[in-house]
Write a structure and sequence with these properties.
Number of strands: 8
Helix content: 40-55%
CATH class of the largest domain: Alpha Beta
Number of helices: 9
Distance between the termini: 5 Å
Shape: globular
């Protein structure tokens, strides 16, 4: 049985893409670049912000354009209400149940750590996470296993006692690089290619299906 559950944030615990698309398109329009629809933006997700910027800008992803878009987007995003960014139904209930069972909980994401913490404080203030390891400019981002390794070390468990829960191919690679099992959720931003990956322990349709591993 597992003792540590490490969650991805975007597309796993929180439905966050709509606010990201709104703010990115506002930034793109402000700078005179072509906007993206929701489906087009899905193909850009998974990496850290620089990797997303590069995909969003396509053949216009020069260092100057990327820096301008990053600065404009972050200013718009951090000053927006982000009213569309909400926990997926059942996520809070699962975390509470796991916590009651004595399971250690953590988050590892390519979203900035302070952004994750702001949503956790707002929606999950009764959940005690061992560590929230988001993207920081001085450390490698997913699929590097560094974040997971930090969490496992702080939790004091072995890799075999941990499981990573995410929705994307990046999450699977991250778990694989860290040498831990991976569960994929189907309500996020992944697709059939992700769900059929041989490394995945199980693809789940509901949060309740995760409980049996603990």
């Amino acid at each position: 049985m597992k003792k540590l559950s490490i969650f991805d944030f975007d597309g796993t615990l929180f439905n966050s893409v709509d606010d990201v698309v709104i703010c990115f398109n506002e930034a793109l329009a402000k700078l005179g670049f072509e906007c993206l629809n929701r489906e087009e933006f899905f193909s850009c997700l998974g990496g850290n912000i620089d990797e997303i910027l590069s995909l969003v800008l396509k053949d216009q992803n020069t260092p100057e354009n990327m820096e301008a878009l990053k600065e404009t987007y972050l200013d718009i995003y951090y000053n927006s209400e982000k009213e569309n960014t909400l926990p997926f139904p059942g996520s809070h209930e699962l975390l509470l149940k796991l916590q009651e069972m004595g399971v250690l909980l953590a988050i590892n994401s390519n979203r900035f750590t302070d952004s994750i913490e702001s949503f956790v404080d707002r929606f999950f203030d009764d959940i005690d996470f061992v560590l929230i390891e988001g993207h920081n400019f001085d450390t490698p981002s997913k699929p590097s296993p560094e974040g997971i390794n930090k969490i496992i070390e702080k939790a004091g468990v072995s890799p075999s006692q941990a499981v990573y829960i995410g929705d994307s191919g990046t999450d699977i690679k991250t778990a694989q690089n860290a040498g831990i099992d991976c569960i994929v959720v189907k309500w996020g931003y992944g697709d059939e290619n992700v769900w059929q990956n041989d490394y995945v322990l199980e693809c789940v349709d509901e949060f309740s299906q995760i409980l049996k591993y603990f």
